């Protein structure tokens, strides 16, 4: 499971919990402006915006899980099993394999409107990266400081949703996640009144009773509601320290502790392998692994005019 979120103070913050049971040697990867982006079925892009993100440390290709470009556009891929339905190549469209979509969008788009224009004629194809790495069933959240969208390929085709909550988890499809929030509209950060009905003498006995009913389990639909509630009620100072700290607290509200989600007997557990937070205005990536300290990498500290990927092992 995974959860992605946005947060706006003086700067815009975007990031995610990466929850899974296996790791592909994740690392921080910076794609500098002149690294040639080779696409399988459409024209290569030789020069482009610089991108920073977390990628699989598998090959000399930026296999991003989530990333942000130097113009402040950010994107993350989250699991979307059962519903995801990539299509075969379609000659009438621009064909981009699912593993290429983050570099394809972030190399060229500055804003959500730019991204939407690129998506208009896109076919997200079922082409595999390699025999060992078939396509992963993902959906994507794309955000700039003003807006957020969700991109899903389902049986009927490509869906692009406005994301007014700025949160994404996993199944079901985004429109259903959003609709489900209606069930929680009575939740509040305030002390509730007794509206039970009748003449029962009911009283509050604890702070926080306005949020009774807020899901606390780690299923994808529950995490969506919990992260949305925490994010919508979030208050912090607007300094970098306070904003990043608050952002990590939003993600912490839906993190998965080792041991709570058994995915395979006897002891394979899904847990929050890393959490990250991009200051999209400044090109800074903050992250922490399950056992590691908070660490940061600033895209502008690196030479973005080179043509080789720049990789940093995660500090664990
Ligand atoms: C599994 C990851 C998403 C985490 C997540 O949402 N977990 C929830 C699980 S569940 O819903 O609760 O079952 C996704 C996010 C990014 C994915 C990776 C990236 O897309 C990069 C490559 C793409 C290749 O096609 C496959 C390997 C891969 C290295 C992917 C493996 C895996 O599917 C990743 C790591």
From TrEMBL:
Which reaction(s) does the protein catalyse, per the Swiss-Prot or TrEMBL entry? cholate + taurine = taurocholate + H2O; taurodeoxycholate + H2O = deoxycholate + taurine
- Family annotation (InterPro entries): CBAH, CBAH/NAAA_C, Ntn_hydrolases_N, Peptidase_C59
Alphabetized GO MF terms: choloylglycine hydrolase activity
Q: Which GO terms describe its biological process?
A: lipid metabolic process
The annotated pathway is: Lipid metabolism; bile acid biosynthesis
Sequence ranges assigned to domain Choloylglycine hydrolase/NAAA C-terminal in this UniProt record: 9-310
SUPFAM superfamilies hit by this protein: N-terminal nucleophile aminohydrolases (Ntn hydrolases)
What EC identifiers does the entry list?
3.5.1.24
List the Pfam families: CBAH (PF02275)
The protein here is known as: choloylglycine hydrolase
Source organism per entry reads: Methanobrevibacter smithii DSM 2375
